């Protein structure tokens, strides 16, 4: 396993711990706290949560299925952001983040497994890739993901990164009709970033599907679009996760003012 960057002192996480907050004004709400992983144990806890959600809940076919945690080679090159329930110290939310140096070390981005991203690579010196975002089913009212986003925004600002990319997944248990309809609606409502439009390696066959439905985006993708992100073209089909993946890009400069005050220092 690669030595995590906190052990190499690449990033100073000593003061990264967010102020502990209470969740949504409920008397019995747990106290939650966001931190960056500072040990292999932290990372393993995040991987176990990912397994619980991606494999057990969503039915994904994971490389590490037999080990009961979600691991791939990108984990060794990523920074891992985690949210804990301070009542019992359980990890209830996580993201992983591949920095420019991490991408250089491994030689490519996760997105390249699904898309031809040559158009985007000119941004790589100030670009991070996020992925494996998930929140425990008991904590999906919004507080956990907002806390994760806030810390991601601070990390990007503090390290002078400008662009975030990642694959946003849409379940295709319906055969892909919802995802196809979403793409058509994105195209009609100016949600496509045509400058950085990327071709999927294994495209979802949109023209063979019913794309006339009122598409329903999952909460994470809906949130990205709400704050100012755009889609970089047609979705890819990921057979292992049984999802349609939309390559999503967010420039910090495009975050809408009403959200910038929550996620950025402006």
Short précis:
Helices cover 27% and strands 23% of the residues. It has 266 residues and is an alpha+beta fold. The termini are far apart.
How would you describe this structure to a colleague?
This protein has 266 residues and is of the alpha+beta class. The chain has one domain (32-261): Aminopeptidase. The chain contains seven helices and eleven strands. The protein has helices at 5-8, 40-57, 100-106, 143-158, 177-188, 219-227, 257-263; strands spanning 21-22, 31-36, 79-85, 90-98, 115-116, 127-135, 163-171, 199-200, 230-231, 236-238, 243-251. Strands 1, 2, 3, 4, 6, 7, 9, 10 and 11 form a nine-stranded mixed beta sheet that branches. A two-stranded antiparallel sheet has the order 5-8. Strand 3 (79-85) and strand 4 form a beta hairpin.
Structural domains: how many: 1
Strand content: 15-25%
Shape annotation: globular
The total count of strands amounts to 11
Query: What is the percent of helical residues?
Result: 25-40%
Mean of all residue-level pLDDT scores: 86
Distance between the termini: 38 Å
Question: Which consecutive residue ranges, at least 5 long each, have pLDDT under 50?
Answer: 6-10, 12-28
Looking at CATH, which topology would you report? Aminopeptidase
Find the structural class using helix and strand composition: alpha+beta
Number of helical segments with 4 or more residues? 7
Main beta sheet, described? 9 strands, mixed
């Amino acid at each position: 396993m690669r030595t995590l960057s906190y052990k190499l002192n690449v990033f100073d996480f000593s003061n990264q711990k967010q102020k502990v907050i209470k969740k949504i004004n409920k008397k019995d709400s747990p106290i939650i706290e966001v931190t960056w992983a500072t040990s292999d144990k932290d990372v393993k806890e995040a991987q176990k949560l990912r397994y619980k959600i991606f494999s057990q809940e969503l039915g994904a076919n994971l490389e590490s299925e037999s080990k009961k945690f979600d691991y791939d080679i990108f984990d060794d090159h990523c920074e891992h952001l985690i949210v804990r329930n301070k009542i019992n110290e359980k990890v209830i939310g996580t993201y992983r983040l591949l920095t420019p140096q991490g991408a250089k070390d491994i030689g490519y981005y996760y997105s390249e497994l699904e898309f031809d991203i040559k158009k985007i690579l000119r941004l790589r010196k100030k670009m991070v890739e996020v992925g494996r975002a998930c929140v425990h089913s008991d904590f999906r009212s919004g507080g956990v993901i907002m806390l994760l986003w806030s810390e991601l925004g601070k990390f990007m600002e503090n390290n002078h990164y400008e662009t975030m990319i990642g694959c946003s997944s849409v379940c295709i248990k319906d055969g892909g009709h919802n995802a196809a309809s979403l793409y058509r609606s994105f195209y009609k409502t100016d949600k496509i970033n045509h400058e950085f439009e990327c071709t999927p390696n294994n495209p979802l066959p949109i023209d063979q599907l019913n794309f006339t439905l009122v598409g329903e985006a999952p909460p994470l993708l809906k949130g990205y679009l709400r704050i100012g992100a755009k889609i970089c073209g047609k979705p890819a089909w990921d057979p292992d996760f049984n999802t349609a993946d939309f390559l999503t890009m967010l420039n910090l400069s495009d975050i809408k003012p009403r959200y910038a005050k929550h996620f950025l220092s402006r």
